[in-house]
Amino acid sequence: MRRLLAEALTAVAMLPGLACATPDPARPASHAVRASAPASPAASGAAMPAPAGLHATLDRLVQLGEDQPQRAMSGLDTLAPQIAADDAMARRALALARAEIAARSLSAVEFTHWRASAVILSTPRHPRLGDADTQYLEALQAERQSRPQALDLARAALKDYTTYCRETQPAAPDCEYRQRWRLNSLLALAASQRMARESAVDHAQQALDLAQAAGDAWRVAMAEGRLAALAAEQGRTDEAQQRLARATAEAARSGMPMVQARIALIRSTVAAERDDLAAMREALVTALALATDSGAERLAARVIANLSDLELRHRRPREALALAERSLPTVQRFGDRLVERVLLHNIALAKLALGRRPEARRHFEQLLALWAAEGNDGEALSSLREMTDALADAGDQAAALEYHHREHELSKKLEKANLDAALAAVRARYAVEEQQREIRRLAQDNQLKSGALENQRLSQGLWGLAAVSLGAAAVLLLLLARRMHETGRALRHNQAALKMQSERDALTGLANRRHFQALLHGDASIEGFEGALLMIDVDHFKHINDEQGHADGDAVLIELAARIQACVRSQDVVARWGGEEFLVYAPGLSAGSVRALGQRLLQSVGGQPVLLPGGQPLRVTVSIGHAVFPLPPHRVQLTVEQAINLADMALYSAKGHGRNRAVGIERADVADAAALLRLEADFEQAATDQQVVLSFDDGPPDPLG
User: Fold this and answer.
1) How many CB atoms are closer than 10 A to CB 398?
2) Which residues pair with 626 in a beta bridge?
3) What is d(CA 265, CA 277) in angstroms, rounded to the nearest whole number?
4) Per-residue model confidence (pLDDT) at position 467
5) pLDDT mean by block of 10 residues, the chain; 705 residues
6) Which of 583, 609, 602, 625 is nearest to 698 (CA)?
7) Closest-CA residue to 342 (of 362, 361, 363, 359)
8) How many CB atoms lie within 10 A of CB 294?
9) So what's the pLDDT on residue 458?
């Protein structure tokens, strides 16, 4: 669950390889007052703050509200009498601060009250502003509750704030920048969780631009930190370090310990991508000390959750379970649903490692139900992958296979949703361009018609000139027709290119899952599917990503795709089936030839190391499941989905028998469709009973010694 907690907005970072010798975050609450609660103007006898000072005070109280909402509300109560009754925008800012605290930490009744107060003050100024405030606050509440509506609300609010600023303050780059910054940050976080990296960078950059235009140090720090984490994730180390240095400097300039703690946690995330254990240790200790001294119980609980994940990575499940169970009540009390899900996940993995499988599965099914209820398919997919590998490592092949198939179904759903969204965006862009071309064409046509009318009015005395004008019009019409033809041809070319892109995996250049399935269904006869399938899975790929970084992980996938492609025939089709899975369709091959192909693939991948971008060699192996369909001796007809499912089951037999091997289905004693379904339902038992005969081929030894 590393990516889940490496987000700047939640101020938590996964820190693999870091020792857990850290201060105890359970400190007296008095620390929170000293570090987080600004003295109110009334209490100090100071005059009412200027607008900039007012907003700085509100910022600090909203951050205090993360851990001590009632104390923060009391600070706002003290501030309220000092705001002039006729200063509607200052009173709106105060009401927005109350509603933000309520949205993240208090009851729905209090949230509804303060949201209404803010909207009542903003709507008379501009109806669009009232709509924006409503959607902004509802987005914050939905985000806290992990509801999928948060994204639609955030986009709508951002659009309304932008329109309001364009209509009322076009020359003010800092117009409503605090809300626009928060919304862009929320959307950047959501895009990062969906692994939509370009969108995440775009929104984070917009947040940075807004903060810089306003000269807001702590918001600049947070946006730079977000961009640093994204750069590190994508292997842009130099950029990550530069942004991190700027974020650290701005956080120090802000004088806000909580912001400094958040940047320290982002620093640990960047260090994790470089596998710099010393820097990760230092950053975590710094972050925890700052959070503890600020009385930030919520953040401290999240750091303890981080340590729980760390213990799992060090294969210390007992310690991981103790930390997760220690942190869970605090996280639940604050309503941190995302961190709560991570803790449930860690508890399930820890109990599985301790041999408490029924309890582990019960916790995990509870977690999946929560992800499903929130519509968070991306995090559910990440959880499924980790649980599948953990079950396989624990020797529970039947359960691992069950979760593996659920992972595949969810992966297909996400891939289709992402592709549909990308295609819709491209089509919308081309539609807008085509509309603009049509508008220009109509404008030119109108000009021609106007010229023709003018020519008619002058025609009695200017027949010669009229003839010339008509000739010019004809030429123009010819040119317009030619241009429309060229435009149509360009559009058809772009559509063809788009279709090709929709059929290819962007990273490896192989066929993608959608295109591959369409091809298999197209090649399936009326009676059923025929041909050989080889399902290939990279062994321990998660460890490669965690230990080497995502950029090196991508490099491994690109190299393996090339090696697989080099082993197959020209008429065979290779697809990237999932994150680290490939599927080969080889029509017309015999069972012996498919087994030989599996052996070649094992040797091609595992027989020589992969050279990473930095030049260091890395040993990589794969597990393979293969079969030729329909299965002998009875050759019962089956669907494409059944064939893929059986190849998958053979793959998981390979993983269950130690990985770096190929397992083939040689024959299956099933005489009809019903028997085939029973075999699918319990493949492991069928293999034990010799109803299914399997072949086993080991991969090569480690070439690195």
Assistant:
1) 14
2) 534, 664
3) 14
4) 53
5) 40 29 30 29 37 76 80 86 84 85 74 77 79 84 76 88 87 85 87 75 90 89 91 85 93 86 84 73 81 80 77 84 88 79 88 89 85 74 78 77 76 66 57 61 63 57 53 64 60 50 78 83 72 94 82 91 92 89 93 94 94 90 95 91 91 88 94 87 85 94 83
6) 602
7) 363
8) 26
9) 56
**pTM (global) more than 0.70:** no
Indicate the residue type of 70. Answer: Q
Question: For residue 383, what are the contacts with CB-CB under 8 A and spacing of at least 6?
Answer: 1, 345, 364, 367, 368, 371
Which homologous superfamily does the CATH classification assign to the domain defined by 296-394?
Answer: Tetratricopeptide repeat domain (1.25.40.10)
- CA–CA separation, 195 vs 190, rounded Å? 9
In the three-class reduction of DSSP (H, G, I as helix; E, B as strand; rest coil), residue 508 is classed as coil
Tokens representing 658 are 């130690």
Placement of tokens 């099933």 in the chain: 670
Going by their DSSP bridges, the two strands 581-586 and 573-576 should be labelled as antiparallel
Q: Retrieve residue 55's tokens.
A: 């907003």
Cis upstream peptide for 630 (omega within 30°): yes
**Nearest CA to 681 among 653, 652, 649, 651?**
649
Q: How far apart are CA 5 and CA 520, in angstroms?
A: 39
Beta carbons within 8 Å of 464's beta carbon, 6+ residues apart: none
> Which tokens belong to 465?
């000139």
Backbone angles phi and psi of 91, in degrees to 5: -65, -35
- CATH class of the domain defined by 513-698: alpha beta
Instruction: Determine the distance from the C-alpha atom of residue 384 to the mean position of all C-alpha atoms in its chain, rounded to a whole number.
Output: 15
Q: Is 50 exposed, middle or buried (0-12, 13-18, 19+ CB in 10 A)?
A: exposed
Which runs of consecutive H residues, i.e. helices, occur in 275-336? 277-293, 297-313, 317-334
Burial class (CB in 10 A: 0-12, 13-18, 19+), 47: exposed
- Give the start-to-end residue ranges of the domains of the chain: 296-394, 417-503, 513-698
Rounded distance between C-alpha atoms, residue 50 and residue 82, angstroms: 11
Tell me the one-letter amino acid at 78. Answer: T
Q: Please work out, in degrees rounded to the nearest 5, the angle formed at the alpha carbon of residue 137 by the alpha carbons of 101 and 50.
A: 65
Q: Check if 296-394 and 513-698 are the same fold.
A: no
Distance CA 621, CA 635 (A): 32
Q: Which helix (H) or strand (E) holds 487?
A: helix 463-503
Q: Which two tokens stand for residue 89?
A: 């925008």
Q: In residues, how long is the chain? A: 705
Answer whether 208's CB lies under 8 Å from 8's CB.
no
Q: Which residues contact 414 (CB under 8 A, 6 or more apart)?
A: 377, 378, 381
Contacts of 110 (CB under 8 A, 6+ apart): 102
Contact 302, 336 (CB under 8 A): yes
pLDDT at position 39 is 33
**C-alpha–C-alpha distance, residues 107 and 102, integer Å:** 6
Q: Which residues contact 186 (CB under 8 A, 6 or more apart)?
A: 9, 139, 140, 143, 150, 151, 154
What is the model's pLDDT at position 33?
Answer: 25
